[in-house]
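WARN no homologs supplied; continuing
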Amino acid sequence: MTKDKNAPNNAYRREYDTAKENLRVFHQELKQLYTHTNLENRQAAFLKLKEKYGPLDKYQKRQEATLNRAKTVLTSKYMTWDGWTGFSFSNDYVADGVNKSQTNKFYDKTLDLNSKYNIDIRNKNNITLEEDQEALDRLESKNVFTTNVHTDAWGRDYDHPDYGIDPSSINRTIVTPTPVGSNNNNNNKKEETPNRLELMTQSIKDNPSRIQQKLMDSNDLWTPERLAGLKIKHQDWKAERRNRKNLQVEATT
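OK structure emitted
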């Protein structure tokens, strides 16, 4: 179902169309965010999104509330005056009392799936109500803002401080045995070297990239340690992809 020339041009329809388009664009930008395989670039793009929209979940909910409010008005056949709250909109006709219902002047037959207008179109094109509803849901971006879009590989939301950081990369300790033949009487003694996260953190502190420096300057959440975790995650991902490719090559030879 799409908007056609029979749709009314009123404030509620414009409000509905604007919110619908805002949700579509917002969803596309979120999908684009996750095409960045380099996690530093992804975080930089994410920062730009937050600067543009503010808290992303609140922006989404605000647009959905605007769309649903306008849609309720547009798909209601009647409007009833209430001296306290103004007009209320519904498909229930109030016949009693001083404030009887009147025909809703904002009603949009093209948006009301139960209108004779849409029923005739479905009968003509052999389309079911369920198919019509699914088409409308897609246009309104319903059921597309899922955890698959919003979360990282470990189920953390995009606003989580540790978004994108592999938990297994944190506090990973490398233990090396004492070399054989050393003067140490205990040849089996083991010593801890600086772990991978510590080394990467120090490297970022000493020589941050331009993007890393921009993120650290933006707010206190972007610490060298957090950026180090992201870089480790990206290195592990590249190593895993390289290993997969090598295995595929071996399998074909």
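Residues 172-183, 187-192 have pLDDT under 50 and may be disordered.
OK
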